[in-house]
Specification:
Strand order of the largest sheet: 4-5-6-7-11-10-9-8
Low-confidence stretches: 1-17
Number of domains: 1
Number of strands: 11
Distance between the termini: 24 Å
Strand content: 35-45%
Number of helices: 3
Helix content: 10-25%
Mean pLDDT: 79
């Protein structure tokens, strides 16, 4: 069964929660007939809580099968549900997903060239990227090495800004960490934190 990476501006409302970064740092969404995401509702959580989730689910652990589960289990009151998405990925690959009503966590290895972990939250208003940059910089121990206008995989610009950091992972592997706050072409506002690394 095939996976398709599509621009978030043109993804169906049910595919919005499957947000990823491609190798160039563009926003993409995941679409598959094997599963269906429910559109996230605007969150009332503070950004520090979202960055803390990203730290525990993605940054402080190796990217891999079930790697975010302990962070999810520690937040039982958030109402996460496991997404059964393995049927939609290539043989031998693994994609894990958890979704609460306002935030999703997704991670994968072997599904495409980069191993990856993401936290996506829909927001009621546009997110100020400056405090996010400060929090992520403190988390990874370095400042961003690239800043650009948020873009989708098909090259269309979205209304927002993306920051990228380069940092070492738990085993010394090179990682790219992204923070993107944007409004898509449908008017939905989102904060997307993601981490990519070369597959081992």
């Amino acid at each position: 069964m095939a996976l398709m990476m599509v621009s978030p501006a043109f993804a169906s409302p049910r595919a919005v929660a499957g947000a990823w970064f491609d190798a160039g740092g563009s926003e993409v969404s995941l679409s598959s007939k094997a599963f269906d995401y429910v559109r996230l509702v605007p969150s009332v959580r503070d950004t520090a809580a979202i960055v803390s989730l990203f730290k525990d689910a993605c940054v402080r652990v190796p990217v891999g099968t079930d790697s975010a589960r302990s962070a999810i289990d520690a937040r039982a009151d958030w109402g996460f549900q496991f997404l059964d998405v393995d049927a939609g990925v290539p043989s031998g690959a693994r994609l894990d997903g958890w979704q609460a009503k306002d935030v999703s966590v997704t991670s994968q290895v072997e599904a495409w060239p980069l191993a990856e972990c993401n936290v996506l939250v829909n927001t009621a208003a546009a997110t100020d990227i400056a405090p996010i940059v400060d929090m992520v910089s403190a988390l990874v121990g370095t400042k961003p090495d690239k800043t650009y206008r948020t873009r989708s995989a098909d090259g269309r610009r979205l209304d927002g800004q993306t920051m990228r950091w380069s940092a070492a992972g738990p085993a010394g592997e090179t990682r790219h960490i992204y923070a993107s706050a944007y409004t898509d072409m449908n008017g939905a506002k989102a904060l997307h934190l993601g981490l990519t690394e070369a597959r081992h």
